[in-house]
Amino acid sequence: MTTRRVNLNTESVDNYLKAIFTLGGPDEERVTSSALAERLGVAPASITNMLQKLAASASPLVEYERHRGVRLSLAGRRRALEIVRHHRLLEAFLYEVLDYPIEEVHDEAERLEHFISERFEERIATKLGHPKFDPHGHCIPEMDGRMPKQVSRPLTDIEQDGKFLVDSVSDQDPLLLKQLKAHGVTPGARLHFARPSQEEFVLRAGSNSKALRLSRTHAGTVRVRSAD
Ligand SMILES: [Zn+2]
């Protein structure tokens, strides 16, 4: 049967589209091949190869120029949003209904997202009361692909000490997620943030929790918004 081969193909195309969408951030900036290579764990040569294919198809899924990086076409964006919706709804389902810990939902959703039907997706959405956010605090796109723009900043962009609300945390690093959770740093939590020097990122969630010091890389994965 050829179905399996078609599935695998689709699966890797979907992973590319999703990675470009996620790395591009809320402003949908162009994404470099090296950033994609790192995210997908694929050799840069294969990245170039795949991007050229995606850009050359009858209705191209990406706009790609070798030295300027890549961004999604309208068709590519639509498809990326669909797969992101699957992914984030699955994460919410695993977390809320099946009691998966937050650090485990991403990998599981990564496996399932390519295979669920539209019907299954709709059932999950209904069961959960059409949630707007996944457990990491990321917006779940609506059925028609609409998605409100999240106004938040990574901790690394904040120069002043102060109080903030945790907007979202990255879903990429299970160990870090576990550590953040242990310190009460989860979406919606109130945070006291201090930046004693350029390379020090100190946070405290709630009043009696222990202070948590993050590296620049880790601090960049926590996004916050102002507390008032
Ligand atoms: Zn995820």
Automatic annotation (TrEMBL):
What UniProt keywords apply to this chain's record, in alphabetical order? Activator, Cytoplasm, DNA-binding, Iron, Manganese, Repressor, Transcription, Transcription regulation
Subcellular localization, per the record? Cytoplasm
Q: What Pfam families is this protein classified in?
A: Fe_dep_repr_C (PF02742), Fe_dep_repress (PF01325), FeoA (PF04023)
Read off the Gene3D superfamilies from this record.
Answer: 2.30.30.90, Winged helix-like DNA-binding domain superfamily/Winged helix DNA-binding domain (1.10.10.10)
Listed SUPFAM superfamilies: C-terminal domain of transcriptional repressors, Iron-dependent repressor protein, dimerization domain, Winged helix' DNA-binding domain
Q: Which GO terms describe its cellular component?
A: cytoplasm
The record, for InterPro entries, names: DtxR_MntR_Metal-Reg, Fe-transptr_FeoA-like, Fe_dep_repressor, Fe_dep_repressor_sf, FeoA_core_dom, HTH_DTXR, Iron_dep_repressor, Transcriptional_repressor_C
This chain's function reads: In the presence of manganese, represses expression of mntH and mntS. Up-regulates expression of mntP.
Binding partners and assembly: Homodimer.
Q: What is this protein called?
A: Transcriptional regulator MntR
